[in-house]
């Protein structure tokens, strides 16, 4: 006898046969995807696999070339994201869309301002946003300007925008890529809370640990097609890596170095640097980096690491102290002059500092190159094209075309373009901030290999990363930054996460 129980409810959202092309490039190829209320469904895959494209289709930003979407069993078709919002979908984009000069409350309520007697009611808006923030344990000040917030707080503002509209289907496109470990943990709590509130959550992530910790189900995209979809209890890191890139990858393994470090190449003495608000960000830091050495700089984001990196590369003048590179005081040199001396830089914010998004790939590959112009003025585009092709050969840029604007590449692909441009064979000193932010595990492994290779060729590397696993896997020595000072120094082979974590939190300063 057939037992007839109550019919299972239809998925919160189901997409069937979604196809999306950009010219001849098929970004989504007949993709099926669904998510239920009370479920976290992770979407993973290589850079350029089509994850953001699929989400942009579900959120009404892009019109699909084929396929259908249902919300709770009913067919929908979105002409814009406001339609999708009305249908209960909210999305936090891979690259944030906040207005820097506006306050937190203004950003959250943008387009839905609270008014009283024809005037905006600032107090009402702020207290409403304060209440909503408190419900999710966000320590945000509704009156603070977004430009003053760090990445973790900005992301909370984006989440509040979605929650203020009470979205029941929440899309998070790589929410953890830019977060420090403590912020990631806090975000996980929020995601679990969204699930327990009965919302449907779609989570895009590159770190398999995060996927395993959070998701109920995981779907893998590979070159625009679904290569697998399984419940999380049937998934393990090796299976997922294989579905994503076709092989098993262990990113966290340390590798023995091939050469001994040489002489001191970079000497920083008593360096002090101010932040944008002219407050001390780096307070009297001294350190040495040898030729052929990777110095890992660990710490919670916002403890002066970024300002330190900018000062090393000449983008921020020191307020005190000195930087000596190859026995030459470079403290007052411009970034361009430091580049001529062999310094290279991978910045934290790829879209604002690393690329000119409107420029094409070849032009971006030329940025900062001393040979970029020919006969005085004109850009040497053939050289740019050769450089771009060389980057593509090493890192395989998804959808590569030298004439394509940087903005049209997927997030991780943009990161590869910067890393490829900066890590050339002739680099003598590399300052990199979060070099694998947003790149897939295959590309992260390529970048790690390349960092070791550049080191073994004798370059000095300052590696700033908010990912402790990355710091531990790559560094020869680790220093921990806390409140603009060096809080501890550790031998990379023996430092434990607990020691590093305690030092980062300012609990202990003894190694
Ligand atoms: N506006 C566009 N014009 C042309 N090509 C595009 C455009 N947007 C995306 N693409 C291409 O579509 C493909 C899929 O990109 P998508 O951004 O969806 O990848 P992704 O899986 O989100 O990658 P990532 O992990 O790097 O964020 C890429 O090859 C990309 O270059
Ligand atoms: Mg993406």
Concise description?
This protein is an alpha/beta fold.
Write the layout of secondary structure elements.
Blueprint (H helix, E strand, L loop, with lengths): L12 E10 L2 E11 L3 E7 L5 H8 L7 E6 L2 E3 L4 H6 L2 E4 L11 H5 L6 E2 L2 E2 L1 H14 L15 H14 L4 E5 L7 H16 L3 E5 L3 H7 L2 E6 L2 E7 L5 H9 L18 E11 L5 E11 L2 E6 L6 H9 L4 E8 L2 E2 L5 H6 L2 E4 L3 H5 L6 H6 L6 E2 L3 E2 L1 H15 L15 H12 L6 E5 L7 H16 L3 E5 L3 H7 L2 E6 L2 E7 L5 H8 L7
Parallel strand pairs: 3-10, 3-11, 6-9, 9-10, 15-22, 15-23, 18-21, 21-22
Antiparallel strand pairs: 1-2, 1-4, 4-5, 7-8, 11-12, 13-14, 13-16, 16-17, 19-20, 23-24
Helix pairs in contact: 13-14
Bound molecules: adenosine-5'-triphosphate (ATP) and magnesium ion (MG).
| Fold-level CATH name of the largest domain | Rossmann fold
The major β-sheet equals:
6 strands, mixed
Give the N-to-C terminal Cα separation.
69 Å
Helix vs. strand class? alpha/beta
How many DSSP helices? 17
CATH architecture of the largest domain: 3-Layer(aba) Sandwich
Are any ligands bound, and if so which? Answer: adenosine-5'-triphosphate, magnesium ion
Poorly predicted parts = none
């Amino acid at each position: 006898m057939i037992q007839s129980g109550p019919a299972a409810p239809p998925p919160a959202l189901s997409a069937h046969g979604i196809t999306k092309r950009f010219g001849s490039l098929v970004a989504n190829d007949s993709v099926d995807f669904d998510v239920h209320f009370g479920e976290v469904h992770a979407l993973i895959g290589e850079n350029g696999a089509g994850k953001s494209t699929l989400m942009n289709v579900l959120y009404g930003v892009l019109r699909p070339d084929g396929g259908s979407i249902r919300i709770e069993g009913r067919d929908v078709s979105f002409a814009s994201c406001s339609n999708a919002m009305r249908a209960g979908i909210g999305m936090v984009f891979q690259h944030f869309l906040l207005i820097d000069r506006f306050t937190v409350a203004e950003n959250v309520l943008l387009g839905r301002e609270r008014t009283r007697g024809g005037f905006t009611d600032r107090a009402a808006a702020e207290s409403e946003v304060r209440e909503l923030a408190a419900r999710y344990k966000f320590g945000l000040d509704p009156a603070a300007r977004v430009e003053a917030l760090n990445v973790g707080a900005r992301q909370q503002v984006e989440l509040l925008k979605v929650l203020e509209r009470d979205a029941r289907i929440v899309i998070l496109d790589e929410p953890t890529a830019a977060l420090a470990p403590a912020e990631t943990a806090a975000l996980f709590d929020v995601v679990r809370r969204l699930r327990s509130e009965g919302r449907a959550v779609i989570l895009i992530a590159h770190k398999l640990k995060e996927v395993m910790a959070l998701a109920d189900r995981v779907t893998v995209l590979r070159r625009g097609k679904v290569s697998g979809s399984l419940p999380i209890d049937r998934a393990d890191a090796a299976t997922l890596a294989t579905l994503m890139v076709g092989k098993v990858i262990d990113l966290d393994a340390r590798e023995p170095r091939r050469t001994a470090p040489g002489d001191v190449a970079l000497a920083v003495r008593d360096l002090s640097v101010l932040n944008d608000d002219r407050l001390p960000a780096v307070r009297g830091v001294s350190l040495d980096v040898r030729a052929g050495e990777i110095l890992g700089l660990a710490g919670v984001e916002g403890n002066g690491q970024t300002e330190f990196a900018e000062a090393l590369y000449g983008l921020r003048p020191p307020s005190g102290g000195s930087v000596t590179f190859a026995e030459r005081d470079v403290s007052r040199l411009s970034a361009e002059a430091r580049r001529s001396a062999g310094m290279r830089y991978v910045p934290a914010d790829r879209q604002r500092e690393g690329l000119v998004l409107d420029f094409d790939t070849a032009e971006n590959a030329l940025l900062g190159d001393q040979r970029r112009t020919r006969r005085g003025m004109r850009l040497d585009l053939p050289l740019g094209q050769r450089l771009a092709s060389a980057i593509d050969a090493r890192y395989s840029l998804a959808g590569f075309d030298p004439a394509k604007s940087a903005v049209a590449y997927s997030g991780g692909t943009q990161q590869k373009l910067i890393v490829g441009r900066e890590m050339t064979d002739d680099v003598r000193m590399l300052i990199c901030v979060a070099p694998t932010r947003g790149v897939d595990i295959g590309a992260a492994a390529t970048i790690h290999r390349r960092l070791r290779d550049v080191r073994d060729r004798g370059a000095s590397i300052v590696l700033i990363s908010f990912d402790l696993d990355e710091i531990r896997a790559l560094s020869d020595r680790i220093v921990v930054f806390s409140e603009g000072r060096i809080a501890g120094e550790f031998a990379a082979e023996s430092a434990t996460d607990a020691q590093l974590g305690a030092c980062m939190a300012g609990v202990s300063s003894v190694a």
